[in-house]
Amino acid sequence: MESIFWHIHETELWTPYVPGTLSKFPPALIVDNLTIQNSNEKTTLSVQLCGNFLVHWNSGSFPEKFINLELRVFEPFTEDCGNDKYYGFYIDSFIFYTKNSKMLDLWVKVLKKICILTHIEDDFVFIKTIGKGSTSIVYLAESVENQFQVSVKCIKKSKIKNSVNLTNLANEIKVLQKIKHENICKLYYAYEDLDSVFLVMEYLPCGDLLSLLSKRNKFSEEDCARFMGKLLMTLDYLHSQNIVHRDLKLENILITNPDNNNFKITDFGLAYTNNCSDNKKCGSPGYVAPEMLRDEEYNYKIDIFSAGVIFYILIYGKHPFQARNLDKILQKNVICKYKTSTSVSEIVSAIINLMMHPIPSIRPSASQLLEIDWFSQHLIYPNSLNVTTSTGSLTPRISYNTFKTII
């Protein structure tokens, strides 16, 4: 099978290691000797699996060449040859042999979380359709091994019309494989067959934030403080990893427990790595930061604007840029024309105004917002979360009086 992702790999399978190009490989997860099949010859290489990199080390214990395993197709196999049995795996179309079945099991355990897998029908049973989009169908599925339920997002290759669609899908997989956070929907595995790409993810049956809000109309200030505090901590984590979501909205926040408003962010199809600014227009009207609509370069602050729109909707029970048609919504969106009212406290209005400020340099980061007393008074910080990141801060503690001078 020719993988759809082969077209976006910039190099051959092996990349020669040039000192200084990678300052340091991650710590080794597996150290082994693999036998490689080249034509009719077999060569044994000393290798280490270092994060996403399969590294060949020479006799002087220096890296000689490496494979970036992201988006590479991985398929294990067992060969019966008379009285002998051979164990190994494919990386794309290249064959690697392991010493024995025990080492193959170890490679399978680790590589299935890094690479693209094949034959999803051997591992999961599809139960029913639970969602449909313009380019994908989402199924409820069950693990053959332990009956564990998952959701499977199926993207037809025929729907991937251009290189932009392919790059978005590749970025979604790479981002989800990289990030680990309790408020982000987990990607367990990625599969591919002749017709489709499959993302095996957490099954979250409680619906999205839009459905929850339709039942509750709006949130109290206390509930908003807790919810937005958790959302900002999650954005703080993403931005510290140089990841920008780019499509935050009610529909992309799935509820895990309606009683305490726990949630997970999903749909990273438009996410990008924020190593530098970008100027591509994308996202959902009414949630998009104005600098993006103005065709200006932007950065992670666009997620803060979208989170501010979500905050507004939760506290008021309506959208800040309500209008009869899309053009009017975008007109209000680009100039940030919306109204606050005395039905909410001054501090809430002040925070919303800052999060939705049309000038991104004035708009605070997630870590700066989390320093506001209003959040800390309501937010319980889970022990598993580290809220200290590299995004910086304005002051050790931001008070309401400070905000009155900024706005």
UniProtKB/TrEMBL annotation:
Gene3D superfamilies: Transferase(Phosphotransferase) domain 1 (1.10.510.10). It comes from the Eukaryota. Keywords: ATP-binding, Kinase, Nucleotide-binding, Serine/threonine-protein kinase, Transferase. There is a cross-link at residue 249 (Glycyl lysine isopeptide (Lys-Gly) (interchain with G-Cter in SUMO2)). SMART domains: S_TKc (SM00220). The keyword Methyltransferase does not apply. The active site is at residue 247. Monomer. This is Protein kinase domain-containing protein. It comes from Stentor coeruleus.
